[in-house]
């Protein structure tokens, strides 16, 4: 390794002794430039880059500390490491030198050549490390500024996109409502009334989802709004909607009679979870296959948490993909490019369930279908959130026991 050092000392014998000590360094080859005054040193530093400076405190005219202060005013792109030499052991001189930017202080005639070399190497390493840390800090600040700008652009784009998405939804809602009023009563069949109602509710629901999406992207996730609700009633309503819209599948709802499936939950959040789980079951299974939704109560739990199973006969999830099912933007390797999806639905669903103090787990085999298991405590669980999947009676594997009412 080659390092450049400027030796500033008005004593010829001292310059010779220091030069010899550095010439015998077994690890570093020092290129020594010598000057006898502070003014010569400033002139040299303005035109030459050096890695280190050995500076005699007692100089004719301007002393070593004054030189260091002048050096700070020059604003050099790279400031050298500095070790101050003096013929006395005055502590005040040492303190002034350190405050002015020196890394070390040695008393002449009291240090060995090895001590001189070690002090100079340590000073160079210290300055180099400080410089690297400062460069990293500046890079981090620049990266943070770029990230802030990117987030601002992203938020603006999301706001514009969500605004543009809401326009068509409002048109759909208004047209469905107009049709409801304009169609003669004699022509308004129950099936037509139901389908128009589905359009209006779906448009309103999509508007809510767009608002939620914008809030999440901005880090403004709303707290849960817990109210007493019947999960069975919600599931039954969702199954009926799917029977009307996804007519190519068979839907089965299983729930033991007389059991209570009510709890203090956020209805909007659980509706999003159900829509995602049931939508995936339809999306990833063939026409004519059965989607089974089963409700149960975790008997061994003192609070009797509610369990919900969504079972499909679809393509299943490869074993290699199972650990990543609930990660954002991850999609199974066996999913066709023709199947739409962003890979964020399950991550959002699990987040909603965990906010309730519950868990969302999956069991799946490729080409044999998947079973998603949601466990919901009936109230606000105190303490640690559950992290293990529920251990309950196995979900149905055969044909349906009875269809949804």
UniProtKB/TrEMBL annotation:
InterPro entries: CheY-like_superfamily (IPR011006), HATPase_C_sf (IPR036890), HATPase_dom (IPR003594), His_kinase_dom (IPR005467), HisK_dim/P_dom (IPR003661), HisK_dim/P_sf (IPR036097), Sig_transdc_His_kin-like_C (IPR004358), Sig_transdc_resp-reg_receiver (IPR001789)
Pfam family, one: HisKA
Matches recorded under SUPFAM superfamilies: ATPase domain of HSP90 chaperone/DNA topoisomerase II/histidine kinase (SSF55874), CheY-like (SSF52172), Homodimeric domain of signal transducing histidine kinase (SSF47384)
Residues with 4-aspartylphosphate modification: 56
Comp. bias regions, Pro residues: 387-398
Keyword Phosphoprotein found: yes
Entry keywords, A to Z: Phosphoprotein
Domain Histidine kinase: 160-380
Residue ranges, annotated region (Disordered): 383-405
Catalysed reactions listed for this entry: ATP + protein L-histidine = ADP + protein N-phospho-L-histidine
Uppermost EC category: transferase
Domain Response regulatory: 4-123
Keyword Phosphoprotein: yes
EC identifiers of the protein: 2.7.13.3
PANTHER family hit by this protein: HYBRID SIGNAL TRANSDUCTION HISTIDINE KINASE C, TWO-COMPONENT HISTIDINE KINASE
Protein name: histidine kinase
Source species: Corallococcus soli
